[in-house]
Amino acid sequence: MTIRKLDNGKHIYVVDTTLRDGEQTAGVVFANDEKVAIAELLNDLGIDQLEVGIPTMGGDEKEAIKKIVKRNLKSSIMAWNRAVTSDIDQSIDCGVDAVAISISVSDIHIKHKLKTSREWVIENMCKAVEYAKRSGLYVSVNGEDASRADRDFLVKFIESAKNSGADRFRYCDTVGIMDPFKIYTDIKYLDEKTNFDIEMHTHNDFGMATANAVAGVKAGASYVGVTVNGLGERAGNAALEEVIMTFKYLFNYDVDIDTKKFREVSEYVSRASGRVLPAWKAIVGDNMFAHESGIHADGAIKNPKNYEAFDPDVVGLERQIVIGKHSGKAAIINKFKEYGMDLTQDESDGILNLVRATSVRLKRSLFDKELVKLYKDYKESLKARVN
């Protein structure tokens, strides 16, 4: 059990879909060994369930899924399927213990994508669920485009899934058009009407995937879908590291996940996906604990809590005092102490002026060797003046 709400003791389960929805990012392909490695990293973090791929694709996809299953990980291993029995047969052949059965639920999808009716959707979903349950699988029913579906139809859809033996309903904000206030209202309504486990699956088209995922959990959802670094189709999904740290630090939930490995996992997925991990990325980016501005650097030196919400080692990072255009004297003095040099006030003033001028000229912060050179230049200029 990954997360526990301390106010009511309710458990929240984390479902990572980096290896399925994350790999559906345009242009991203994981090698088979990379898929296995990512699954093992996520298992080591303590993630409850891993959605690892789409068996009906066959070939390398099935081979990778079978390799992951053979690792006998603690995490539940889920495969994604259409509401088609042949898809489920492929998942059974891979040996997974859980399946996601996905079907469109919005009228726009039913009319323009499936070209059928609401009744057809429920009928085929129920057949697929019953078929999977007869094989002893855990079943998540995915309501594709649920955020644009009629709420009362969703209630009927969920009740039908429940009666067919499904274990939970995945609420998909497929095109990322929800906001946290609306999604809270909708999930609360569905939770109260159906009393069924709901999973949040949110996309980031308007930059609110994490906020929407969290809002859904606050409204009553007990599962939350995520990907490492927010990888996913178009603008991506709710980021695993952001969602978990929000629960841990903003809501003070009991989180049984090894967050110290977040940076390691993020870097590996970044390299494997060929997607750069931005320096400004929340939680795991290089700039999370980098301080340059004079006031901020001074405050961080005196007490890191002045400008840091949590310690860097919590997510596998280190604090950095960056020297550049916006640095102040305190940062200069502190940096040179690292070199075993105690600067006088006059020296720190003089070197600071050189640092700022050099930083503007180079359009970046300075490296340690450059700082040492500036110190030597400063001392030589003083000698020249005396002579």
UniProtKB/TrEMBL annotation:
Enzyme kind, highest EC tier: transferase
Protein's UniProt keywords contain Metal-binding: no
Keyword field: Acyltransferase, Transferase
Transferase keyword on record: yes
Transmembrane segments: none
Pyruvate carboxyltransferase domain mapped to chain residues: 12-263
Enzyme Commission no: 2.3.3.14
Top-level division of the source organism's lineage: Bacteria
One function term, GO molecular function aspect: homocitrate synthase activity
Family to which this protein belongs: Belongs to the alpha-IPM synthase/homocitrate synthase family.
Protein name: Homocitrate synthase
Gene: nifV
